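User: Okay, second chain of the day. Same drill as before: sequence in, structure tokens out.
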Amino acid sequence: MIIEKYGDLRNIKDNMIVDLSKLNLKTKTRVIDFLAGLTFKNGSLKKIESNKFLVRIGD
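Assistant: Same drill. Structure tokens below.
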């Protein structure tokens, strides 16, 4: 899923690859911070390649 704006984060689901290449640096930093919080308890955030992350939310 390509994230084009911060509001697109409401569509994130478990085991999804997100592409942040369309975001500016400030928004990209906010999105990564949000994703890290989303996956903190039981999930993971794994960088696959430049600007692409695998999001696992967990239980």
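Residues 26 and 32 are 10 Å apart (CA to CA).

User: Thanks, on to the next one.
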